[in-house]
């Protein structure tokens, strides 16, 4: 959950939150950020709110050499139905390969950096789309945002932010870029900003970046000028 949305939910609802990290292959969550951690984060440790917390009982988590999150636990799936090759590629020596890139903070909390396939490579630098999205969510006029890489002949990929403005507001692309520049290193700042009415989502409400990339490829005129 974007940290600004978490703060807004806490302020409006006056309730405690818990969150975590999991997937269907884990039969639910395997890593948890509890109520006490959320309270501490809201009280002045916002970096904590950007983590997924600590592994639950009986769960081992480690990072592969490329940063991919690997999980070993009795809750890991037995396998994909009638797909032995996919199972063998996903569960190796008892460790589930999540497809997510992560890192641990000094207290052992796991932070999700990005999906491996969503990391943007621009000018030889890796950019986490989630980090850019978190920064753009700090802009009050932004209702929803998805950040993807778009091909560039010089840099390999450029960072592109596709944004849904909050109802009743006007969002200028240059103002969004300026806001990002104040929060991010220069190579992470979006070079393209596309304003849309809605983002493609699946049945559970998750933004489908694969469809978004395909739409941008089919409508290059929407990218406008490189900033």
User: What's the helix count?
Assistant: 7
CATH superfamily of the largest domain: Luciferase, Domain 3
Instruction: Give the overall pLDDT as a whole number.
Output: 94
Oligomer: single chain
Percent of residues in β-strands: 25-35%
Spans of 5+ residues with little confidence (pLDDT < 50)? none
- Which CATH class of the largest domain applies here? Mainly Beta
Strand-pairing-aware structural class: alpha+beta
**Tally of separate domains:** 2
Word description of this protein:
The chain has 227 residues and is an alpha+beta fold. It has two domains: 111 residues, Luciferase, Domain 3 (Luciferase, domain 3); 105 residues, ANL, C-terminal domain (GMP Synthetase, Chain A, domain 3, 2-Layer Sandwich). Helix content is 25%, strand content 31%. Strands 4, 5, 6, 7 and 8 form a five-stranded antiparallel β-sheet that branches. Strands 1-2-3 form a three-stranded antiparallel β-sheet. It has a three-stranded mixed β-sheet with strand order 11-12-13, with helices on both faces. The longest helix is centred in the N-terminal third of the chain and has 11 residues. The radius of gyration is 19 Å and the shape is globular.
Strands, helices and their partners?
Elements lengths: L2 H11 L5 E5 L4 E6 L1 H8 L3 H4 L4 E2 L4 E4 L4 E5 L11 H7 E2 L2 E10 L5 E6 L4 E3 L2 E3 L1 H8 L5 E11 L3 E10 L7 H9 L10 E4 L13 H10 L9
């Amino acid at each position: 959950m974007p940290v600004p949305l978490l703060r807004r939910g806490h302020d409006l609802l006056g309730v405690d939150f818990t969150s975590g990290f999991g997937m269907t292959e884990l039969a639910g969550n395997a890593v948890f950020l509890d109520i006490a951690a959320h309270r501490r984060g809201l009280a002045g440790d916002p970096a904590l709110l950007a983590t997924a917390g600590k592994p639950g009982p009986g769960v081992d988590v480690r990072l592969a050499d490329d940063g991919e999150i690997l999980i070993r636990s009795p809750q890991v799936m037995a396998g994909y139905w009638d797909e032995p090759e996919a199972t063998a590629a996903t569960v190796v020596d008892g460790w589930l390969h999540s497809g997510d890139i992560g890192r641990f903070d000094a207290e052992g909390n796991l932070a999700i950096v990005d999906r491996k396939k969503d990391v943007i490579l621009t000018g030889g630098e890796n950019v986490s789309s989630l980090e850019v999205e978190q920064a753009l969510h700090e802009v009050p006029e932004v209702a929803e945002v998805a950040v993807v890489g778009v091909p560039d002949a010089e840099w390999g990929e450029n960072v592109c932010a596709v944004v849904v403005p909050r109802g009743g507001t006007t969002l200028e692309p240059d103002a969004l870029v300026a806001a990002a520049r104040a929060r991010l290193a220069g190579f992470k700042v979006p070079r393209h900003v596309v304003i849309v009415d809605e983002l493609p989502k699946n049945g559970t409400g998750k933004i489908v970046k694969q469809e978004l990339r395909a739409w941008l490829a089919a409508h290059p005129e929407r990218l406008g000028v490189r900033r």
